[in-house]
Write a structure and sequence with these properties.
This protein is mostly helical. The chain has helices spanning about 5-20, 30-40, 40-55, 65-70, 80-90, 100-115, 120-135, 175-180, 185-190, 215-220. InterPro entries: CCAAT-binding_factor, Noc4.
Length: about 250
């Protein structure tokens, strides 16, 4: 057992500064599987090492996708290692041999968590989800389901279910992305509206969006050249601007 701080320091450099120089990288299997089971940022950081062992050293991990699915919580859109996590998740979900119910569960959970995500994360996750639909056409029923659930109360999807196969994601629809089409940030609303149209065959390149920050979004907005500024054309009446405002009887703007 290592202190959490030391776990993080080791796992950050393990995949490129330790494993390539070991004669038997498979000796790290137990360490990485234990770290993967701890949860939180430590589990996210263990993904890099596990990916190398699975991809290059034939490690079999039966519950890998179940644990990856259970790592998805509201914090993934805010953590320091968000870019690394979504880069690896993109790789793990790239195989066309994955069952539709599994990919649908990931799509649905990421969409539900997106309802409370910041704009910089949403501008990354929406193209990410579009790429999953391109790779797995069987999941497009989530978008093109007529008379599907319109909100959380009607949704058959079980968010609390730890087993992706039991989450009933394929019986649901992506009303969450439709909700994001009314997002306060215009770029997010525009990105979410893409699912109203037929998707192109070519995948979106999300590499430049993985590390997008709130500062970059703000800086982009500040540098925009606005030529037509809408102005208030009707004189304000009352405290809240309504004509028959009850507050106007008791408060004035003088």
């Amino acid at each position: 057992q290592l202190p959490p701080g030391l776990y993080k320091k080791v796992l950050v450099i393990l995949h490129d500064s330790i494993l390539p120089y070991m004669n038997e990288p498979t000796l790290m299997i137990d360490f990485l599987t234990v770290a993967y089971g701890i949860g939180g940022a430590i589990s996210l950081l263990a993904l890099n090492g596990l990916f190398i062992l699975i991809h290059q050293h034939n490690l079999e991990y039966p519950d890998f996708y179940k644990k990856l699915y259970n790592l998805l919580d509201p914090s993934i859109y805010h953590v320091k290692y968000r870019a690394r996590f979504f880069h690896l998740t993109d790789l793990f979900l790239s195989s066309s041999h994955l069952p539709a119910y599994l990919v649908a569960a990931f799509i649905k959970r990421l969409s539900r968590l997106a309802l409370t995500a910041p704009p910089e994360a949403l501008l990354m996750i929406i193209p990410f989800l579009c790429n999953l639909f391109r790779r797995h056409p069987a999941c497009r029923v989530l978008v093109h389901r007529p008379n599907g659930p319109q909100d959380m109360s009607e949704d058959p999807y079980i968010m609390e279910e730890e087993e992706p196969s039991e989450s009933r994601a394929l019986q649901s629809s992506l009303w969450e992305i439709q909700s994001l089409q009314n997002h306060y940030h215009p770029d997010v609303a525009k990105a979410a509206a893409v699912l109203n149209q037929s998707l192109s065959e070519m995948e979106d390149d999300i590499s430049g969006l993985l590390e997008l920050s709130a500062y970059e979004l703000f800086d982009k907005e500040v540098k925009k050249k606005v030529t037509d500024v809408p102005l208030e054309f009707e004189q304000v009446r009352g405290l809240f601007g309504k004509k028959n405002d009850i507050f106007a009887e008791h408060f004035t703007l003088d």
